[in-house]
Amino acid sequence: MTLKQPVRSGRPAGARTAVSALLATLLAFAFLLPSSVAQADEMRNAEYWLKSLGVTEAQKETKGEGVKVAVIDTGIDTSHRDLKGAVVGGADMSGAGGAKGDKPIGVMSEHGTLVATLLAGRGNNQGEIDRVTSENQRLKSAWEQAKKTAEEDDKDVPDEPEYEKVPALTGGKDGVLGVAPKAELLSVSLWMGDGNPSGISVEQQIPKAVKYAVDSGAKVINMSLGSTSPAWPESWDEAFKYAEERDVVVVAAAGNRSGGMNQVGAPATIPGVLTVAGVDENGKASQDSSTEGISIGVAAPAEKLVGGLPDNGYARWSGTSGAAPLVAGVAALIRSKYPDMPAEQVINRILKTAKDTGADGVDNLYGYGIIDANAAVNADVPAVSENPLGTIAEWIRVHRRNSDQASDVPDPGVSKEKSDLKQVAAPEPIAPDTSTPALQPVLVIGGSLILLLVLVIGGVQVGSRARKQALTAQVHSAKLSDLPVGKPNEGRDLFDDIPEDEK
């Protein structure tokens, strides 16, 4: 049975509803699969994305050296053997975790460790340690038995064999290898959902976490958390703008339908954030472990994932909270190879080198396509000056204007946009001809009446045509806001008063 984790979310901007009712770490969107406790020697072979995404090739150029990546999550178990030496700092924003963010907290406390190992796991050499230890124990047991026998038989005791030195724990071929195994991690712990002993809300924790990550030197931030609402608290604006202005790449998970998200939720909807959707092992959009939305940048594997659990455990899991650190890892590889490359170009490289999937071009399921780590790191990509995903600074300028700074708001349905069309003058009226014709027709009374009737009808038609022409000229030359608008209950709209062309 798949274990569905509780959804934890934040509240929409401007509303004072319970934050924990909406904000959800994608641990809420992460699912531990049946028989999830796995062995280290099974993990590496299960990481199909290392080859399919071109990670193995990309790692021949760089492994993320010199780049700090902040993992804003539930805290990382820094003692996990696959993360030895990887976590270089951190802090707790919840008031309930370890001072350095190294205490897994909350309902699904293992989530942060799962994410961290996928991003920057270094694997381990525990298999080699076990082999050497076992062989040494075998030799020692054999020697002790030989010694006992020799002593009983009053014979010379054989010399104790030389034992192989047991290697120290380090990275190796076992366990989980992350996309950027030499990147340095910052563990920034949050308490998601209800029950935080300190009472600090998620709404307060998120902006503090982002600012801490930036101030601590992170060049990439991974946020495998999200909400069921595309809106975000206004209190988050400045934090994400702070990261944007300081050249930090922010990566966020899109969310999962199985976690109750039918559309991308914040912070993955924040302009400038690189949002990651999920695909299955065959590169198809995941039905359960992904969602859709116009803010999706790229897609990455979100099914049949593996990762580390606290206390040196392992698990099989799924969700876009696992897809996000794969992309954040690629961002770290790029920033390692090109240390002076600005964030917007890092994001652009990831987008423009992605393998187009689904509908041609950018779409709501895959964004620009499935990430290609090797191409993102090594391909020639033209430089850009702006983030293709927009900027939070511009969004704030447009959408968070104070009422006293806002321009006049037009009435619904009436545009006040200025027209670029030149005004056309109405034709001058033509004065009636009062001159006397050279020949005076001779008319009988009956003929006079007929002529009079014809003149009256003709005059009416000419007047009607002149009025229609004048109204048409007015429509063509006037601004849309100058046109008359009927009342709603009249069953008419703005365009009912525009005269049609003569047939």
Automatic annotation (TrEMBL):
Q: Which InterPro entries match?
A: Peptidase_S8/S53_dom, Peptidase_S8/S53_dom_sf, Peptidase_S8_Asp-AS, Peptidase_S8_Ser-AS, Peptidase_S8_subtilisin-like, Peptidase_S8_subtilisin-rel
Say if the entry is tagged with keyword Transcription regulation: no
Q: Cite the entry's keywords alphabetically.
A: Hydrolase, Membrane, Protease, Serine protease, Signal, Transmembrane, Transmembrane helix
Q: Transmembrane residues, as ranges?
A: 438-460
**Signal peptide range:** 1-40
Q: Where is this region: Disordered?
A: 148-169, 402-433, 482-503
Q: Does the keyword Signal apply?
A: yes
Biased composition (Acidic residues) is annotated at 151-162
One Pfam family name is Peptidase_S8
The superkingdom listed in its UniProt entry is: Bacteria
Might you name a Gene Ontology BP term for this protein?
Answer: proteolysis
Single annotated GO MF = serine-type endopeptidase activity
Positions of the catalytic residues: 73 (charge relay system), 111 (charge relay system), 321 (charge relay system)
Record domain Peptidase S8/S53: where: 64-369
Family stated for the protein in its record: Belongs to the peptidase S8 family.
Q: What is this protein called?
A: Peptidase S8
What is the native source organism of this protein?
Answer: Glutamicibacter soli
